[in-house]
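Aggregate trends can hide what the representation actually does to any particular protein. The sequence in question and its structure tokens are set out directly beneath this paragraph.
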Amino acid sequence: MTVIIDGTAGITFPVTAGSASAVQASSGRVLQVLSSTKTDTFSSSTTGSWLDVTGLSLSITPSSTSSKIMIFGRVTGNGQAGTTRMQMRLVRDSTAISVGDASGSRVQVSGNELFSNGADDLFGSTAFYLDSPATISSTTYKLQVLNGNSAGTVYVNRTPNNANTTAMPLATSSITVMEIAA
């Protein structure tokens, strides 16, 4: 079988170990995958500061400085009805990644805002990013949330109301990181 790469030269399989084709075939290969799913709830009334969401943090040690890290993040939740805007971002160690450009007082986020006037609403915010950390040291990726207003509470994996009825769902949030050979 021959596979065409970038519309030009192909690789014929099976590939002989150590050959130029074997080196070319290894590019793009997934080397390791780590994932964490948060099933419990999280809430905070802290305003104006980015907060780590417990259970949504992973440390990965790349095997090469040329490796790429693909991050898939999802936070499910909402802010307190009508008063709180919950924002989400991806962070590598202590540096925000995959956020919008700085502009005035606007908040730089990685996904959509979670906000509504209803106390029974639950939303999801997702972010996907291909990072180039250029290191072989342990690197931590995490999801953070921000209470964008001066009052109220942000909620992860639950509605603001959270009444014990079938109309009030409980959800999950997750983060997955994959090392990809360059």
Q: What stands out?
A: The chain has a mean pLDDT of 86.
